[in-house]
Amino acid sequence: MSTSTTSAPPPGTQDPPPPKSPGGTKYPSARRSWRRALRRDWQLYSLVVLPLLFFLVFRYLPMIGNVIAFRRFEPGGSILGEQWVGLRYVRMFLTDPTFWQVFRNTLWLGLLTLVFCFPIPIVLALLLNEVRRTALKRFVQSVSYLPHFLSIVIVAGITMQMLATDGPVNHVLGWLGHDPIRFIQEPEWFRTVYVGSEIWQTAGWGTILYLAALTTIDDDLYEAARIDGANRWQQIWHVTLPGIRPTMITLLILNIGTFMAVGFEKILLLYNPLTYPTADVVSTYLYRAGVESNSFSYAAAIGLFEAVIGLVLITSANQLSRRTVGTSLW
Predict the structure, then answer these.
(1) Of 205, 326, 306, which is closest to residue 259 (Cα–Cα)?
(2) What is the rounded CA–CA span in Å between residue 5 and residue 141?
(3) DSSP-derived secondary structure for 93-146
(4) pLDDT score recorded for residue 119
(5) I want to staple 102 with a disulfide (CB 3.0 to 4.6 A). Which of 88, 107, 226, 285 is the partner?
């Protein structure tokens, strides 16, 4: 009884192996897997189309207009300017004392907003996390979230009515024997009014991300801390805050990136010529210089300068966060 054996093909007749990339990955298989994933999940990929189009049309294409910061632009002329002028408009705002005044105001308002508006949602989220009565917790959340859903026009109107000379705040001051204070007309009060209205409008809504991050902390960590004799404050310091640290760092980096973008709409609604010394910021100055005075090239140069500062701030904050705490956006 014989068994048949298959002889190996002679050398030189085998099929060549598929080409490989320098890293060892087979190009055809990788391409086929990408196409297979696209065919399988095309519905999910289609959801990305509209957001990409939005950012392309309303974020990236308008960046081409920054070229008018270096060209003389005249309304009704070429959209990219009429004549190349180089750094003329940059030198104009660098030597303009009014610009440096509004730049200082922007730094002050941005710093005060970051110092007060960033930690308050964290504190409020920690306090809400300690509330054990569900009904009370939901009531406080609903009341604190409500200002976020009001338009900026309504928020500014409520602020002006509350702080008017004959408003409720001055009525209370009158009962206490204090003379009425012109909060809206006096420059030294504007920063307090703006930061206070920002806290009232954004503090409740800002707690949502922190409350979500608190739910991801393992309860066993609290149990271990209690066994070790930690009280509530020590549990918050050693368990809760480290648990939400990545969320805190991410939001801090984003807030630093928008440091220069102080709320244009609210300031425009709250300020007046009497409060320009402390209320006028870069965005409102751009509005007056670009829209009201038709100096579009000058305004574009200032806007480009502001964008560069924002890019430097968010990049520096990201690098500093990566080296110190190991958390970063990229």
Answers:
(1) 306
(2) 79
(3) HHT-HHHHHHHHHHHHHHHHHHHHHTHHHHHHHHHHHH---HHHHHHHHHHHHG
(4) 93
(5) 285
Residue 179 is given by DSSP the state P
Among 125-129, 259-263, 309-313, whose mean pLDDT is lowest?
259-263
pLDDT band of 264, cuts 50, 70, 90: confident
Report the greatest alpha carbon distance in the chain: 121
Rounded Cα distance between 240 and 229, Å, is 16
| pTM (2 d.p.) | 0.79
Structure tokens at 230: 């930690």
The pLDDT assigned to 17 comes to: 54
- Cβ atoms of residues 235 and 229 within 8 Å: no
pLDDT in tens, 185-244: 999 999 999 999 999 999 999 899 999 999 889 889 989 999 988 888 899 999 999 999
Name 26's bridge partners.
Answer: 20
Q: Running DSSP on this structure, what letter comes out for residue 229?
A: T
Write out the two tokens for 100.
């440096």
Q: What are phi and psi of 71, to 5 degrees?
A: -135, 150
pLDDT higher than 70, residue 91: yes
